Amino acid sequence: MSSRRRQIKLIVVLAALAALLAPAAASASMRVTGLDATHFPTIRATIVSSAGSGVRPALTENGQSVTGYQAVNLASSKAVVIAIDRSRSMRTKFGNAITAARGFVAAKPGSDQIAVLAFGSTVVNLSRFSAVTDDSDSALRGLAIDSHSGTALYDAVATATGELRSQDGGRVLILLTDGTDTSSKAKLTQVAALARDNNVLIYPIAIVSKQYDPTALQTLAQQTGGTFYSASSSSALADVYSSIARALRKTWRVEYFTSARPGDTVRLQAAAAGAGSATATATIPDTFGLDATPPPSKLVPTSAYGPSGPLAVGLAVGALMLLALVLTLSAYRGSWVKSRIAPHTGDAKGGTKQQRKQRRMETLASVFRATEGALGHLKQWRWTQRTLERADLPLRTVEFFWIMIGTAFGLAMLAAVAGQSALVILGLMCGGAAVPFLFVWFKMRRRLRAFEDQLPDLLITIAASLKAGHSFKQGLQAVVDEGQPPASDELKRVLTETSLGRPMDEALADMAERAGSKNFEFAMTAVTIQRQVGGSLASLFDMVADTVRQRQQFARKIRSLTAMGRMSAYTLMGIPFFMAVTITAINPAYMHPLYYTHSGRLLMIVGVTMMLVGSAILKKIVSFRG
After folding, report:
1. Side-chain half-sphere of 54: how many Cα atoms within 13 Å?
2. What is the pLDDT of residues 591-613, one digit of tens each?
3. Number of other CB atoms surrounding residue 223 within 10 Å
4. CA-CA distance, 145 to 238, in Å (whole number)?
5. What is the sign, positive or negative, of the torsion defined by CA atoms of 189, 191, 194, 196?
6. Which residues on adjacent β-strands are paired with residue 71?
7. What is the pLDDT of residues 303-349, one digit of tens each?
8. What is the structure's pLDDT at 292?
9. Alpha helices for 346-421 (secondary structure H)
């Protein structure tokens, strides 16, 4: 009897334990989604484990244990973009959608970074990533229905991926819509690949409606490792957002290096205590994760990639190689024959090289003559020639012109080979042409400033020589002997020209134009008048030297008084560029709309124009004409 009672008690205990363990067994689950093998040798997967964030899942690949893998739990330390459809079809559901999204934001973990994005006819960034719930909540409260028709669903995915790209930890996009895409520039395959490449998990929420089509949303969730959710009405959105929050607390994003080879099938198994195990399979592409066909080169016409394009390109390359071979052989044969008969005709090998060099120089000279004949009559050509003279550079204008052309096309070719856009190529071409010009310009300004500083001492030296009884020409020679460049070089040229028969007045006038100094031009005009009417030339030079020195002192005083205004102009001009470069380096996604949208480029053009106008006004205020 007692043994029977013990059996009954044992049965009751076992039944009680079974009743207690039944809910736990029912709730235990493990799921592997989003197995991505397109980034060989890296394998990525999403694991949803009922064991939660406290139990890290163990991975097995093709029966072999995986070690050294990275696992990020999405219970905390993640960045979330909440993208809400605000198209006209959402008018009756918009209030519930905003309320559900605000509830999700209010219940988020404290470390989560949330950004809000809305899309209708266009995509609008409402708030940047912030751990403060008030930022996202205020952005959601201020959201309204779009006044224009259209649903840019795929553009919203691309924009959100660009925002998440710069964030650390988990990256999640929660996408709410009630219809299909109607106005995006991007394609479904493009945005899905973009999100997958940037390790972004997409959780689409579809509100069942007449425009409802789950195909695109299911594709986004499947290819990125997220989960597709469907709401029968907008009133059920609060439960859907709560389900996503619970799922994220049980989600792991894992990444590891595979031992498989391209073309192999990877069978990944994940297991965790209390959650069971799950398996997923994927095949590694033979192309190592790259497209089978590379993108067409910008240097080759698009028609060359047609059915007969490779054949035509091959024939053209073969013909060019054959022509080059024929020319090389004929040139070698001609040089070989000439070298054999050279001892009998008296031609030396060195003479032949000299002739070839002379022919090359004649070819360049003919190109230079043609360029000068076409452009030499322009006033810009003559101005460039005067600039080179003032910079004291031993270059002809045509040589400087071809140097600018060479640097411009050299940088443009490098940019084209690097695959840059046409706008970048054009900018580098302009920059390459500007570099030699800026070098000459700065050299000219430095030389003219040095001459202006030497002018008072130059005039005093000439006056002292005249007072000692020397002639005016001997006074100039004294400056040449005792002075320093550039004044001594310019006066030496004047003396050389006068020794060849040029009148002194013309030589001095030409020097004044080369020097670009109003003070020296004023002094030479006074000298010319004095030489014609007579008088004390030494006293005149003393007076002019004193006047020039006072003018220079006054100009320096004005420059010191306006230093603050000039520095303000430099600061106001430099701060926008400094901030743009800094923000671009820290957070490129933040500056993406400014660089890659029409309105952003328009804002940059308007901003630069206003800066140029403002700098011109400030320069006019602080400038001084003595």
Report:
1. 3
2. 877 877 778 888 888 988 998 88
3. 19
4. 20
5. negative
6. 254
7. 555 555 666 767 777 788 887 777 666 655 555 555 666 565 555 54
8. 46
9. 349-375, 379-391, 397-417
